[in-house]
Amino acid sequence: MRFQRLICTIVAPFLLHPLPSLAGQSASLETVGIYNVQDLSKKTEIISIQKSTRRMALSCSSKGIVDILSIATPAKPRLLHRLKVTDGSEISSVAFHPTENLFAVAVIHPDPFTAGSIQFHDADSGELLTALAAGVHPDSLAFSPNGRYLVAANEGEAYRYAGRHYESPEGSVTHVAFGDGLQDPAVTQISLGDYSDVEGMLHRSHGRAFPRNVIGGNSDEETEVPIKDNTPANTEPEYVAFSPDSSKAYVSLQENNGILVIDVATASIEKVFGLGMTEHPADIRDDGRVKFSKKLRALREPDGIAVSPDGRFVLTADEGDTDPKASKVLGNKPAGGGRTLSVFDAVTGALIADTGSQLDQMAHAAGLYPDGRSDNKGSEPESVVGFEIAGVLHAAVALERANAIALVSLVEPEHPRAIDVEPVGPEAGSGTQYAPEGLAHYEHDGQHFVYSANEKSGTLTVMQVKNSNP
Q: Running DSSP on this structure, what letter comes out for residue 21?
């Protein structure tokens, strides 16, 4: 479904801003290939590309497997090596070093209250080169663009009963600085502070809760653990993105509705941004009818984040991950999950704009909107990448529940515009679940590609970004 056919479906009164000019908004997405890992039990989850060698690392988290793929022909990823990097422990993320023949994986300890690790492996043989300590439940990691640093977000999301109270390990950030030739890595475990009074972050008055399988309870049922504050035990770092100059690392605090800014040189937290709320029309009833007519007021709660190539903006995919104590979207308490792509000033943290209802509306126009999720989090923007085409900033957003990728033009960042949506598989609108998780952008010979790792189908979708107005 292309922009020319969809523009009339985006109803002007529902947009947050007047429509911007259409210059630079003629790009579209086209699926040009699908790579199948040949085993649907594998959770294809995170993608990391080493552009210098035209290789990709693709994690299959539940199996502890990393596939090394050649993307010399971008539309036809080809398996080079299938590497078993753990003996059963789950890996949550993978990161290819920008230039060296190695990758890192975040390894979750089987005991959810015990610190995990960061393992470094040879990208050809899979040989374990070294392992470093991380925090509890490392959930995302990334190398800096200059290759001198690595940062991991340690979520520490487990809860267990402790009398009348709940216990949870503290969230944290692991910072690794490498010497010459990646020798003598220096590891710093960055502790978090109490962010309960940070404006724009989650507050106990919002009445939100963590949906968790509490240890010591019924393992088949989620318990809603009330969120009373943003102390370290209740703060859960989620995703890492570096600034282009490698000076800052941005870490999303999904459940806490904030972003940490890490000063990479000093391995310290420079500031914390509260992300506030979004208000826009939405379909908030699971009733078999899709009408974007009710006001949604929601905490953004971003999962994936990205930094624009010029370093000016932080982009967030506002999925949501907390539950209310009552109705998910009705009543006087805010919902969890903005259902938006949001744009923030990378220096001040000020909101520039968000997409309002556009992502859900475009998914609906393409026959992909999951009405059964209307009373929860809609299409669920999961992850995001930012890139420039002919000098114009764009973002690709994975819509987990819509089984699709949305393309957003940021030619005017204060007026983000969803311009296309493309399903990640041929049966995406039929109830088949693909669940796009990790995204990566790759430019080759002036052509732009977006890769989507689809965790429920065990596939990797290759989309080309077509620009009809270069």
A: P
pLDDT tens per residue across span 416-454: 999 999 999 998 888 889 999 999 999 999 999 999 999
Decide: residue 247, CB within 10 A, 0-12 exposed, 13-18 middle, 19+ buried.
middle
- Identify the domain containing residue 247 by its residue range: 3-467
- Compute the radius of gyration of the chain from its Cα atoms: 21
CATH number of residue 89's parent domain: 2.130.10.10
Beta strands in 101-164 (DSSP E): 102-107, 115-122, 128-136, 138-143, 149-154, 160-162
Domain tally, the chain: 1
Who contacts 433 (Cβ-Cβ below 8 Å, separation ≥6)? 403, 456, 457
CB 138 within 8 A of CB 171: no
90 contact partners, CB below 8 Å, separation of at least 6: 61, 62, 64, 107, 108
Q: Which two tokens stand for residue 287?
A: 């009733």
381, 398, 404 from 292: Cα distances, Å: 17, 21, 19
pTM for this prediction: 0.93
